[in-house]
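User: For my dataset I need records formatted as: sequence, then structure tokens, nothing else. Please produce one.
Assistant:
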Amino acid sequence: MIPFALLLPLLVGLPVLLSLASLAGRSPAAILRLCAVGTVAVSLLAAVPVAVVLAGGEPLVMLGDWIRLDALSALHMMVLCIVYSLGALHSPGYFADEVRKNTLDTAAARRYGGLWFGSLSAMLVVLLSNNMGVMWVGIEATTLLTAFLICVHVTPGSLEAMWKYLLMCSVGVAMAFTGTLLLSASTGPTAVHGNESLLWTSLMASAGGLNVTLVKAGFIFMVIGYGTKAGLAPMHNWLPDAHSQAPAPVSAIFSGFLLNASLYCILRTLPIVEAATGGQGWGREILIAAGLLSILTAAAFIVVQRDLKRLLAYSSLEHMGIIALGAGLGGAGAFAAMFHMLSHSLGKSTAFLSAGRIIKAYGTNDMRRLTGTLAASPLWGAGLLSGILGLVGTAPFAIFFSEFMILRAAVDSGEWVTAVLFLLGMCIVFAGALRFLLPMVWKPRDPKPVFPKATVLEHFIVILPLSALLLLGVLMPGFLTKAFASAAAVLGGAQ
């Protein structure tokens, strides 16, 4: 049998080497090309163990179960690679004008490349770790590494957003550390001791004997702590500032996967809590409440937004709430949550990348001044239009069906209040987003802003994810159905 597990530590180490190579880059253009080629190379390498796990269902394990890739982490790794690849391939074109004008100098480009690959390695640590302590270290590392990506362009606004992100997420991650300690301490009545008390697999195997009070307290701290980094309401305040100030490729990885990685840590804890509390739904109810609060908070802010990137940021708050809600409902809801995670990442990455190019050409984030985008640039205008239509749940995009599945799961579970509030939030978001989307796309503008000629690669960056969103809304391939079902089974749900 081929030892595919040997690839797992290589996945963490390769981005570290690429980060060091970026710091030695001789020109901004060369560093940005390295970001693109290196990220795709890491993604292709990751595709092998991801395919093995999702096709066979058996986890890959190394180092005494400290490194572990199962269906849930493999699905998240697939999404991670897609989002990072789209952002990295977009970077050379996005920064091309600044490279020509030397407003992005070699030092800034080195910092960008080093932090880009460093954050990629840290997120892979989060997904590959079976140890709660190591996973926490990975999340803390993503905070420190991604914070300085926000202010690639140093302005008062970007510096303020960076410090706000650092302060809020550091406090949140500190609370998650407290939750980790409490969950580890809950093994006192069991035979699990030492390093084993930090392993997810050991905690799950001995869940019936854990101290329930400590488990519940630990989960609450984790939901608040990791929920801050995931952007769940009411701990979401850093999110719109960071997303609106960061360069478009960075906004794409923030919304497309950084939030998912933090929510993943909560989802990892959920089956342990449910098993320890006798499957009474105690932990799931917390996720349902957090999900609904996030959806309704996002809806309230979206209807009054004027800034395009802040609107997309609040959309991320909404979609993190939807994923939490689906996971909380369990069963078919957990399947839909995994489906929704992939669909949201595809749509949000495309929307942010398209918005970034449009904002550069127009020189403003104000949606009231971003008119006639489709006529000015058919590619980026269509990317923004299709991306936002997909994100608000327009049929036949995939998000419409994942949201419908979550709504149906709520109804089938008898959660009528949840279903009504969820539907209300979706309707408000739909109306609020379209209020500005249609003028942005169709309202005439003269003179038209000048866009650089789009390359074949840039067409690929827009067309491929949008085509996948449409395809998944019409026909879901069998391997993805199996992948979603396997990941949902880890959470205690199935199709």
